[in-house]
Amino acid sequence: MVDLVWVASVTAGAICFGAGLLGWMKSPRSPAAGLFLLAMSAIFVATATGSLYPLVDASYADAAETMAKTFVVAALLAMTFLWEVTIVFPINRRIAFWPPNRYGFMIVAGIVLACVLGGQAELDYDNPLGPTLTPATAKIFMVYAIAMIALASVSVLLSRLKANDEGRRSSMIFLIGLWVLFASGFVYAIDFTTGHEDAMEFSVLTNASLVAGLSISGLLFAVAIARGQMVMVSPSPEKFISSSKAQYKLLHRRVYLVLEEKPDFSMKMFSDILKSRCFDCLDDESFPCESLDCSSCSLPCPCRTCKKYTTRAQGLIVTRQYPKDVRTRYYIQTTPMLWLSTVAGKDNMDPAKLSLLTDFLVSFMERSQNGVVLVDGLEYLVTSNDFLRVLKSIDRWTETAMASRSRLIMSIDPKAFDPKELALLERNREVVRPDAKETWQIIPERI
User: Fold this and answer.
1) Does the pLDDT value for residue 290 go beyond 50?
2) Which of 34, 78, 252, 435 has the fewest CB atoms inside 10 Å of its own CB, making it the most exposed?
3) To the nearest whole percent, how much of the chain has pLDDT over 70?
4) What are the E-state strand segments in 125-229?
């Protein structure tokens, strides 16, 4: 029976850990995904140690104390990390640890508090059924759990007011999973409030509720993340460095095919869109924000309160050029980049895996509220795949851009394709000729 309890507890913890790992793999650079992985890892440690210390004989008091402290620290850290996830989810707020801003201070203070309180955990050996947490430790445990679930719930509900549709959906799934986790300890809460000192006794009912709650919550998170229903990161715009409007008029739901030997003009357009106001912005009172955190700025921001697009342009670059060189040359900071390369890497994309690239682009355009995507390196894709297969993928990108109100820019060298292939690429797409002598042939038009 004891072995079965431990196996069931560890299995439930492993499910939670798997959900956290999946969330981090989907968004490895997201602070929310990182904190979520830490929370699920702490749950796994808590489930692995929480069912062991009651089995230790009083003659091994030191070992039991160590396991009990590990369990309490891990459990408190799990609650803390789950609350801290809501600091950057569903609204992605900037975190700084040195010098710390208020969000960085809150995260560090929460971790320290959980470790200090957990380190004071004590065991009571007077219980004839085995070592249990003392009433004082159990009280701290319960008060802390209630405080964390309350903070997390309030934070999510407030953030939902400023989140987009995807953020509201993701936050609701997260909140449901969070309350399932909290409800899994409901039996213990009843025992404690009725005055039972052996509330941590591993009864069948208590174990069943804990294991069921952890398993259901972990599976809910895992399935929602795998299906893209719970997204831990949202596309983020570049910093607003110019109060002027974008120089080029790129319409939404349009695909622009730029004919150039090197992707200089397309990069220029892309950078201009990201760092300037929208070309059709009706508010002329905007100003350049440099290093201010929007959440700590009280000045009116026309971009933040935009009713038409919700947010400024959110970009993505798929390029054959080395990403660091692109960032340095065009001063691009936060925009994600995919490097078309056979070299293994976190942000690298094998050109032979065209279906994965298509899934990534489609997912980005569907998630972004004001998306603009630049693809450079179609010639390289054709060398690793046949032309018709690449054309089929481009058609899928085109359809997604039109359906999601995004803008797609593709830079190609016309000399790399024969006339028939070039005609197929130009079909149903706006053709941009930067070197055209007639200004009206340059699309998009200047404002």
Assistant:
1) no
2) 435
3) 78
4) 132-133
Distance CA 182, CA 129 (A): 26
Name the E strands within 176-296: 254-259
424, amino acid identity: L
Conformation bin of residue 331: beta by default, left when phi > 0, alpha when psi is -120 to 50: left
Domains of the chain: 2-226 (1.20.1070.10), 254-441 (3.40.50)
Q: In terms of Cα–Cα distance, which of 288, 292, 265, 266 is closest to 277?
A: 288
Nearest CA to 156 among 143, 175, 138?
A: 175
- SS3 of 170, please? helix
Global pTM exceeds 0.70: no
Q: How far is CA 382 from the centre of its chain?
A: 32
Distance (Å, rounded) from C-alpha 438 to C-alpha 441?
A: 6
Cβ-proximal residues to 305 (8 Å cutoff; 6+ apart), any chain: none
Higher pLDDT, 54 or 229: 229
Task: Look at residue 54 in the predicted model and tell me its pLDDT.
Answer: 58
E strand residue ranges, 273-313: none
Strands 348-349 and 337-340: parallel
Output the six-digit token pair for 208: 């069943």
Q: Distance (Å, rounded) from C-alpha 66 to C-alpha 122?
A: 10
- Write out pLDDT tens, residues 56-78: 555 566 777 788 788 889 989 99
Question: Which tokens hold the place of 197?
Answer: 């000192």
Mean pLDDT of the region 283-303: 56
Q: Burial, 204: exposed, middle or buried (Cβ in 10 Å; 0-12, 13-18, 19+)?
A: exposed
